[in-house]
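Here is one chain, start to finish.
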Amino acid sequence: MTDSRNRVVFFRITEGEYDKLREVLSRDGARSLSDFMRSQLLDYIHSGTTTERLYRRLDALEQQIQELRSTTVSLLQENPNVGSRH
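Its structure:
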């Protein structure tokens, strides 16, 4: 059984915020403002607590740093003169 959408949520934004929102809608090809806002809100709700989101972002950054280190080491091994001073 699918829950029916029978609740309405209202909030106010500035004209500038609305303009930015319209740009994002256009860029992302969203069907409507309502669908976009609903999907963003539900994604946020299902993404866990703020702490969990921060830990996931930190983990992703640490992985990127490790990949950069590995790439740097590989490049230096392939070209030993690159990192030397003359």
